């Protein structure tokens, strides 16, 4: 390897700085100027060096500022060189003392002004102290003094010597400063050249000390106002006699003095007197007459406000009035000592807008509201008008236990009116109702309670009659109102609602009851009306279902239909239980009464409707057919009975006849018994209810059966209980020994079939008789039932007529 070269030795490095002279730039040298110029430049351009060669004025605003400063300095220098000011000489004087009382007079003030010997005087000032209080203008007359001067003082016009100048003194102003000024061009030493003790004469004219006269006037005025206030509080019946003659004389004296000084107080005092007169007249209007009348409260308030405004225009009069206690207003909150008067006017003003016909009534209520004690309250209550309507009665309740400043309604006026009484001295207190036990303000409690009941719709006994079901809601409202109004509320009388229903059919009754109960159910409540309706309904149903009523109304089947139709569910309106005459009457008992009447009507139905005149109505099938037709029943139906456990009525009741009718049927119309038996057998369950003919016993001859035997053995039959002139079918049982002819005889005429038997004969035993011979072999003469049994139709002419039957072997007429 080659050997490395040896390291070179390090040589230190040194830096060289070469300075070269530069040329000076043009304009950068400072050019020295004079000191005034330097100051000028610094003042106008403080931002530039004052010695800069290129200095220029860049703005003009600093130049104006410097100029203004220079001018100011010159002015200050000029004033600093002015002469010293002249002196003002002040002298004091006291106004002369006036005579006592409010006077219009002139005060003369003569005062010498001492002039200093050496001072340079600019003006002379004379201050008059303790100038008397004056009302209106103060007139000042300054006589011209011996020295020349000008005249200055505060006046309405520029003052001049020897001329009267008016001044309007400020409130409480008691001094006046008069300045005698140095005239222009006056020589030095003014006014010493004219006088060293200069005399000035000043005359002050005005209505001085008005407060003394006004204090006397308002003191007397407040005495009379206090008397009016007392009369208001006592509700005195005094005549209006204020303001008095003495007060008017005081006002005339003050007014005369003030007029002499052209400061007339007459209008102000007349306004005050008028306010007092209006107040006393309002009291007399309300209380002095036989009946109270509502005063014009707004006129009184306006007159008082006019008086207050007039007083405020004259501070001295206002101060005298306030000092005597004259209130600024007759409003209750600012009336001061006249609170009672203010309260009267306040309530009267609230009623001022009422019509003229309402104002006498309103005046009574104002007097009652302002009653000072219980005796006065009772006196005014006795003089109140009668209650006119329900609104009047309700309004009177507001006057019981009233609260201050809470409006109450004014009773008896033609339109709703509220009255706010701020203070009640003797309010009606007690129970809030009309009547002997209540405190409502009325003339006669008992009479007014009866009148309110009459207004509510009740009679003299305080019962409310009702005429229609729709009126129940109105009745409830009236009853509620009666409880609110009367100490002894009226009772609901629904007799008129039920009037005449006891003579109506049940359909009519149900319609009326439905309308009544529909109205009751609309607003269900167990109130007095509901109880009265329930009680009256029970009384009505007891009358309708009384046995005598049922017998009178249900005299025929048609009568039953008319009576019950539409009213089968009338018992749904019955009270539970239905009590009649102290005994409970159930629906089952009512149905039984109706069924008994219906059965009796069925007994007469055949005869009444001539269904089977030949059989005297003893035809059950024809009767059943007629019933189906009347009640629109089907062919098999005989009745429409109500459920035994229900409250409905039968329409119609189960078919059946009375026991007597059926017994007569067995005696007089035996063939009808079979028809009756068939009706019972074929009737649906529950639709037939009644007796039937007793079954025939073998070997026993029935009442309408006759056995014909040998000719020498006659038979007889008595048609017992059979109606006269009613056909009866008699069954003839012919024995083999009997002939084919039978003679039917009777002592009275009779009919055989449709033939009238008039042939008379004589019988050895019977005497004179009527007889008819019947051919048993002739089908046209008799009716054959079976072998050996024939029927003949006989019509008796008298009750219990006896017929004799003689068997004949040959025709022997």
The dominant shape is: elongated
Q: Helicity level, as a percent range? A: 25-40%
Strand content: 15-25%
Q: What is the radius of gyration?
A: 68 Å
Compute the average pLDDT.
Answer: 84
Describe the structure.
With 813 residues, the chain is of the alpha+beta class. Helices cover 36% and strands 17% of the residues. It has 21 helices and 25 strands. The strands form seven sheets. Strands 15, 17, 19, 20, 23 and 24 form a six-stranded mixed beta sheet that branches. A five-stranded antiparallel beta sheet has the order 16-25-18-22-21, with no helix packed on it. Strand 19 (750-752) and strand 20 (755-757) form a beta hairpin. Helix 6 (297-313) crosses helix 8 (339-350). It is elongated and about 205 Å long. The relative contact order is 0.04. Mean pLDDT is 84; it is low at 1-14 and 16-27.
Summarize the SSE layout with pairings.
Elements: H1 35-44, H2 61-80, E1 87-94, E2 103-114, E3 121-129, E4 134-142, E5 150-152, E6 164-167, E7 176-181, E8 197-208, H3 210-234, H4 245-260, H5 266-287, H6 297-313, H7 315-324, H8 339-350, H9 359-369, H10 374-382, H11 390-397, E9 408-409, E10 418-419, H12 445-455, E11 463-465, H13 472-485, E12 491-493, H14 506-522, H15 528-544, H16 547-553, H17 557-564, E13 579-580, E14 583-584, H18 587-608, H19 620-631, H20 659-668, H21 670-682, E15 705-708, E16 715-718, E17 728-734, E18 741-746, E19 750-752, E20 755-757, E21 760-763, E22 767-775, E23 783-786, E24 789-796, E25 802-808
Parallel strand pairs: 1-3, 11-12, 15-17
Antiparallel strand pairs: 2-8, 3-7, 4-6, 4-8, 5-7, 9-10, 13-14, 16-25, 17-24, 18-22, 18-25, 19-20, 19-24, 21-22, 23-24
Helix pairs in contact: 3-4, 3-5, 3-7, 3-8, 4-5, 5-6, 6-7, 6-8, 9-10, 14-15, 20-21
